[in-house]
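Dear colleague,

Thank you for sharing your sequence with our group. We've completed the structure prediction you requested, and as agreed, I am returning the results in plain text so they can be pasted directly into your records. Please verify that the sequence below matches your submission; if there's any discrepancy, let me know and we will rerun it promptly.
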Amino acid sequence: MGHGHTHGSHHHPHHHDHDHDHAHDTTAPLPATFDTSVPDEALSPEQQSRRALLRRAGLLGAGLAAGSVLTAGAAHAAPATAAANGRRGKGFLWLAGDHHIHTQYSSDGKYRVVDQVRQGARHGMDWLVITDHGSTTHARIGVEKVNPDIQDARSAHKDTLVFQGLEWNIPAAEHGTVFVHPGRNEVEVLKQFESGYDGAVKAASGSSPANEALAIAGLAFLSDQVGRRKVRDALMLANHPARKGIDSPHELRAWRDATPAGHRIAVGMEGAPGHQAAGLPGPLGPGGARGIYNNSPGGDSFPGYPLESYRTWGGFDWMTATVGGLWDSLLAEGKPWWITANSDSHQVYGDTAARGGGDFSANGRYDDPVYGGSIDITENDYWPGYYSRTHVGADGFSYAAVMDGIRAGRIWVDHGQLISGLDVRVTGGGRWATLGGALHVKKGTRVQLTVDVALAGGPNWAGFQPTLARVDVVQGDVTGEAKDKDTFTAPTAKVVKSYEVNKNTGTVRLTYDLGRVDRPVYLRLRGTDGNRTAVGAMGAAVDPHGPAIDVVGDADPWRDLWFYSNPVWVLPS
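Please find the predicted structure tokens below.
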């Protein structure tokens, strides 16, 4: 079955690129926000706000030092288990970020890089990826031109890691984020990649075997650049995968498997798309579809997808939201495929800025934004961190640690700050594993899932304090490699346990006893504010209270909040 996600395989040996800028090395000190020796009053307002969030989640000071990311769980983390799991005993630094952000270097964007980074920092982001659209103009001049702006933003916001990436027009498919570890060759490698493998640049967007092969070649190119030490690391994540129905199941599998298991380039997809403000009902909102998921099948769409896959469900992509659906079918193979949640920020709802002038195709960018003189309530986006957050468990505050955490699947996502912290452990046989990992035990070992949730504890950016109504545990069997690469169901996956929480302050501990485990399984979590639920697509026996399909024109994102975690596997032998 080739379990490509065991703990050891994630910590791939870094090919130290001797050219790369040592300011981006793993020895970076903790940002002031996380450094408890720096007093609150010495922090900027943005840093104070971020620290308050971390404190609320139990992620400052003692909580980090004690092998658990939540102080509530610290006493229960026996030091031996950390060693058994190949982890140092320190716990992770949970860094919130967004890998899908546009600027004036996108033909449909308007903001400066520093605007997006400043807003991201203000709204609690520790890492950001600037992902302007792949295009002939971007490939020609945009990749170079945006880099000094990214360098300036890195200098101006030292507590925020700012990656350079791009939004790849995946040949034969949808969009994806591609980004690299900062260093001397970041521009050169991205430019070569875009010029050689972007679907728009190469006129290769239609569905065909040749175009699908070009996408695989692009991922192999990135892997080769890492192997040759041109860049220290590179990652790809599929964006809004179900939006047009053109990311077929076999393409997702092919991207995942295109590069060696120990150093996968394509590691996951947006579990929830950006453009969440699009669902705000009129007359004060755009009155559209959350995520701008308002499509129907086209000529290049995968014919097996049902019509309801073209809508979001509780703001999440159908591939992720369906228990027993496409995401579960990938996890049932026993291979990693992670989910994220992002802003896809282009034009922010309620903003007063208007796009600057200038000739985009000649200059590769628009002029800086100007004051527009009115509040724009037709826009679909939020600033990075305002609504959607991707939390990554990192070994430290560095570019490499964030990329390692993403590749390892130590990720959970939330909307509207429904919760502020999550610690997930599966224990058995004197060992433990966390999100993205695998617990290897002898057959018949008793296994327990322990979940510590730090609740909202304070108001979100919409000004209210969300309440976590319920948490669900989803479990599925690992059934091995899918014979049919277009499989998108997992018949064994179902909600095995639900917990009523109905609180919005403090922390709660949830435990689930798997009993004596005799077959390989995986577990994943989701939680909801309970405002909108429906029986899942596979029926009440599989998912009695799942997310409801979002209604176009009436899908206020703040009235339907969810969090999702990535899986953890239990592999008896």
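Summary note from our side: The two ends are 13 Å apart (CA to CA).

Kind regards,
the structure core
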